[in-house]
Amino acid sequence: MAAVGNGTAVTHFILLGLTNRMDLQGLLFGSFLLIYTMTLMGNLGMMALIHADPHLHTPMYFFLSTLSFVDICYSSVVTPRLLADFLTTDKSISYTGCVAQMAFFLLHGTAECLLLATMAYDRFVAICRPLLYHTLMSRGMCIRLVAVAYTLSMANSAVQTSNVFRLPFCGPNHINHYFCDIPPLLQLSTGDTLVADILVFLVSVVVVLSSFLLTLTSYTLIVFTICHIPSAMGRHKAFSTCASHLTVITIFYSTVIFMYIRPESGQASNMDKVVSVFYAIIIPLLNPVIYTLRNRDFKRALGKTLRRVKAALSWHRGPFPELIQLI
């Protein structure tokens, strides 16, 4: 390890994990393994179904497919490492590995924020400006919106990661978290973190609050439009759909704001670990369920695919009895 200032540069960190209670390790491993498996199956299944059904090749499902991809990456940055730490006593992560984990986590976390805002805007145009929908949300525009979201996400990830790791780490290396996140890393730095704390706050305000306000504004305008729907059943259905979407959005943004947009955001605590579970692990599981639960087109496509699979299995089973009789 190279000497830095009055101390020695840290070459690896120790992740303390969710809890140090050994009696809970097996239960937590099983629970998070189930969550991660369902997250992968739900999001991969959504992507496959959207790709396979031509009726789902619309802007809304294009964004949903992209969100599923982001959720898979987002969850995979954190959960496999967490699962491994439940099974081993060596919870060390290299300095380079910590940098990479933070960079990819911020990349896909920011993309999640921006995509949720983009999807809210897409629904606003579809419901409030239906005559202009195909013009405003053309395929080229959808691709450009996703490209802009990822470009901004990469920029935010680069700024935030370099902001943290430009600081000296020459003392304690035990991270009070289950992955390399900004608040617990700032707490370990042996340098002055005032400028870093301010930058984290300002950038988070710009990225998180701007996307949250755009999302909230879009859904507010959608609700006003829904209120003018003459059919009571139509209003109820639209409100219930928006309510389910807003539930996920509220959980995601409230936990992210708690972590990154608050006084002394660099002071990590055990509560931070619990809060981070919601936006890093639970939300990627909920998204494919919430965004398709009340969607007739998606359920119709799923039913068609299941019938096709059932028919294919029946066809494969059919010839074998006859073949046996011939033999």
How would you describe what is shown here?
There is one protein chain. With 327 residues, this protein is mainly α. The protein contains 11 helices and 5 strands. Helix 1 runs antiparallel to helix 2 (59-87) and helix 3 (95-128) runs parallel beside helix 7. The relative contact order is 0.13. Mean pLDDT is 83; it is low at 1-6 and 322-327. One of its GO terms (cellular component) is plasma membrane. This is Olfactory receptor. Residues 42-291 form the G-protein coupled receptors family 1 profile domain. Odorant receptor.
Features:
three-stranded mixed sheet; Rhopdopsin 7-helix transmembrane proteins; 75% helix; mainly alpha; single chain; 327 residues; 11 helices; 5 strands; disordered C terminus; globular
